[in-house]
Amino acid sequence: MTAQPTYRVKRVYEAPDPADGRRVLVDRLWPRGISKQAAGIDEWAKAVTPSGALRKWFNADPLTRRAEFERRYRIELEADTAREVLARLRQQAAAGPLTLVTATKEVERSHVPGTPR
């Protein structure tokens, strides 16, 4: 039986920790005010982030657009490149610690899932 993939979610502004394992940035844009060295990022997975247009649309009214954002984002994640990256991230999570890193202030309301998918 294979291990269930698990991962953590952290803000990029939190200091890297050895327990993070592999750190993957899951934002389309590089976070403001932090150097690549300070962020401690092992991979930048742009292919699994919401498109600029979807992000802009959602941010205009996140309270009422959440359900539709999730639907549209899932469609974007069906693209071949995104599917390949997601499969690789699942393999990495099954192999050892994986932390998805984002600059989002409210992680629980972001595009980053709180539990493995």
From TrEMBL:
Pfam families: DUF488-N3i (PF22752). InterPro entries: YeaO-like (IPR052552). It comes from the Bacteria. PANTHER family: CYTOPLASMIC PROTEIN (PTHR36849:SF1), CYTOPLASMIC PROTEIN-RELATED (PTHR36849). This is DUF488 family protein. It comes from Nocardia yunnanensis. The lineage of its organism: Bacteria, Bacillati, Actinomycetota, Actinomycetes, Mycobacteriales.
